[in-house]
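Subject: for your reference before the review

Hello V.,

The reviewers asked for a structural picture of the protein, and I figured it would be easier to keep everything in one thread rather than splitting it across files. Below is the amino acid sequence we used in the manuscript, unchanged from the supplementary table.
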Amino acid sequence: MNGSLIMVGRMVDPHCATSAWEGWGACLSWWAGTELGRRDDIARALFGRGRERVRLVDQEVALPGLGLTVVRYDLGACTWPHPGDGSARMVESPRIVRRKQIEGYWRGTGWDWAADANQRSMLLKARDIGADRFEMFSVSPPWWMTVNGNPSGAERPDQDNLAPAHRETFARYIAVVARHARDHWGVRFASVEPFNEPSLQAWHASQNQEGCHFTVDAQAAVLAPLRRALDERGLGDVRVAASDECFYSQAANTWRGLPADVRRIVGRVNVHGYERDDDSRGRAALRAAVGATTPVWQSEYCDGEPSGLTTALNIGRDLRSLRPRAWVYWQPVDGAGWGLLGGAYDDTTPNPDGGAPGTLRAAVTGVNAKYYVLAQYTRHVRPGMRLLDSGHPDTVAAYDDAARRLALVTANGGGARTVVYDLRRFSRAAGHGDGHTVRVWVTDATDAPARTYTRDRDARVVDRLLTTTQAPNTVTTMEIDDVEP
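And here is what came back from the structure prediction:
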């Protein structure tokens, strides 16, 4: 054996399994609110599983469809009066751009169900392709419910901006849109989330996006009316999710601060993945605070590293220590390395006089390695599979009971190494004597990858041991058939 290789072991334990995996997903929001929301090729790449051709600014590329099944729809807070109707006007942050102003449905004098057409278009495309988990979330209440008429936040970031007199109004607004979506769009939102990073002291009148601060008491004052409003409209099957905090530590504090009767209203805890938590103590603390029976979603993750290595390592940490039932990427199409696909938009300059400029034109500029990295997980860890204990956060192990198939996805952020996956806790792992073929895919998690979700040389299971050699900065997926726990 090459002496430069590091030898590591991973014990896969089928006796330590989580609940059924619900899926991987994407938020719509900004990117889908542009003309990209009408693009069939992007919809097929994100939510389909075939080999999909996507139009870039200067060429077409063939991509492996990610097969995302979870969609988070952003219920907007912005409206503009029709010319000459004399209505009050929304106060606009001097730093916001048009793409980040999501249209709401109530204009003050009536409902406008034609609003937000681009984001709704992508919502329906995702549904038609096969997505089957839908959540509606609010980043800010509609501007006319806020204290200062500004959906970017209050005058100070530590101030709540939902007017107390509109707490019931806000709850009813969410429920009405959810009911309309079911009746007229054919979309059944399984959950609604009324907050977005509510404890974060970042939302203020000059912020560059929508946002709203809520104290824990203010959150509780919305959650109970929201449950009632849903029930009154025949939406008793719709979960109330909370609280989409930015950090694991904030989510744990919020959960502990909610009264017990309000916690019973919350059907799922949502949290974002923006806390530096390399040792996963924050994740584990949140999981312990919530308890084993309350489901959790990692409802928003994003980073500015185009290679995808940080994304892969954080997926492993989340699935091992937070144990979510779904994992959602924030903006699949974005610039500066934040997106899976590169995005360019025509609204990069704010308008300090309000009426944010931009015609919502957009283009896809390229494909980041992060897209292919995510494909290593989303195409092989599928809804209904059970996550198993892999022995280490760098490896995700998932088992398909019906197909008797084991999937292993490993991120290697260190040097070249040989990894031995110990499958001896399975009663059968299809490799005895001469061994059994294991299908392998690899992506180089680098800025200029040579391998992009590339089918690699098959590996072998021999005497229930699978040995592979992995290059630095790679993500490797292995599928093994005829495996029985």
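For the response letter, the relevant points are probably these. The mean pLDDT is 94. The radius of gyration is 23 Å.

Happy to draft the paragraph if you're swamped.

O.
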